[in-house]
Amino acid sequence: MQIIETKNTRNWWPLADVNVPSEQFVAGGTLLQWQELDAPENAKMYQNSWVTQDDWQLLLAAGTDAKLINSEGEKLAWFDTGKGPSVTASNDSFFLLYPWDLLRLNEQIVGALNESECIGEVSPAAHIEGVIKVGAGTRILPGVFIEGNAVIGENCKIGPNCYIRGNTAIADGVHIGQAVEVKNSIVGHGSSIGHLSYVGDSVIGSKVNFGAATVTSNLRHDGKNHRTSVDGALVDTGRRKLGSIVGDHVHTGIHTAIFPGRKLGPYATTRPNENVENDIVE
Length: 282
Prior knowledge:
Elements: E1 2-4, E2 43-46, E3 49-50, H1 53-62, E4 67-69, E5 75-79, E6 86-88, E7 94-95, H2 101-111, E8 117-118, E9 121-122, E10 127-129, E11 132-134, E12 139-140, E13 145-147, E14 150-152, E15 157-158, E16 163-165, E17 168-170, E18 175-176, E19 181-183, E20 186-187, E21 192-193, E22 198-200, E23 203-204, E24 209-210, E25 215-216, E26 227-230, E27 233-236, E28 245-246, E29 251-252, E30 257-258, E31 263-264, E32 275-276
Parallel strand pairs: 1-2, 4-6, 8-11, 9-12, 10-13, 11-14, 12-15, 13-16, 14-17, 15-18, 16-19, 17-20, 18-21, 19-22, 20-23, 21-24, 23-28, 24-29, 25-30, 28-31, 30-32
Antiparallel strand pairs: 2-5, 3-7, 4-5, 26-27
């Protein structure tokens, strides 16, 4: 298998800036680390391609020089020159071009988990409805309610009395505080989500600290897809629900309210009671 460099440079955010549990997913490097592919040596793919096992089998069946394309005719993976017959991939195979595409991937992978594995400590006073993976040294405290599938890394402290909703991936060394709700999100290594906060449909980087009662908003009043600014142009994210994209080492003041689809670049800060209406990006 040969990995070709990134398809293009439309990424507003380097994918390597987001880290999730090391044994489950590795952001950055090649996406082959996220899946076990039985691909021949002459197979090629872009570094930011995500190809499902089923779509790989379609490509294999198409023979030498075949190529796997998306619905827009863009090449995801191929054999040799890729000038042979085209096979159209399912919508579950796609390019990761923007940070919110990680949510789409996370939903697919975490949503497909079917067997729990709890190496850490789960309090008998916690309530679990779904499939969870919990790493060594992690403590799930009393009153925690996990609804839907979730992955939690090593040496985390979750709770007490917080609500973790489906398709959430929490990396190593994370603290999710008292009465926090996290839904359909990725939280990077060493981050702390302070008490009374809400994180929904968001990508949170590493070493982030959310001050108490920091809230992300993820839904437009008109119910339309979120659009966000990339290189001065508004881009349709394709997501009806999108919270925040938060870079490494961001610190928010208490009672920060972040508007839907807003981006906070690495080392950004907010003041107490601040409303984030626009991106904070240097």
